[in-house]
Amino acid sequence: MEKVTRDQVVTYLDTTPSTEETWSLLGIGITSYGIAYNPQVTTEKWIINKNATSSLDSYQMQGDVSQKIYKGDPCFEYINNLRRTLGVGSKVETHVLDIDTYDEEDGNYKATKSDCIIAITNYMAEEAVIEYSIYYNGDPVTGTVKMQDGVPVFTADSNTPSV
Question: What pTM was computed for the model?
């Protein structure tokens, strides 16, 4: 049994979504990041039963970020440009890549790639932070990542549709 540490699960944002993917590591100035799965559950109690039955219908995944501002960090620069232009609609659509570097086989790491949107929620305050939410859209694509010159290259599993 091996203990997994937080730095073994990494997230990348596509910071050039209108062109070829540019994966930028999310983490500079960020002390905590997790994905809330927000399960969508339907509960129904029939009149002939004493107890209800629930079904898990879907997830509404989301990660909230509070990032100290570091000029030159590609993720900050991308998010800050969205803030400056008050990006909405398709301007805030990009991709997110979550990689489990602890789950490796022959130099390939288990990963999921998702469409997402970025929603800015707060800027500056006393701590000089930018806060935003990453809303995962649709079904994630499972696959593997191989690092090439420090850049992740994602390959989708053959049984999942491509994002």
Answer: 0.92
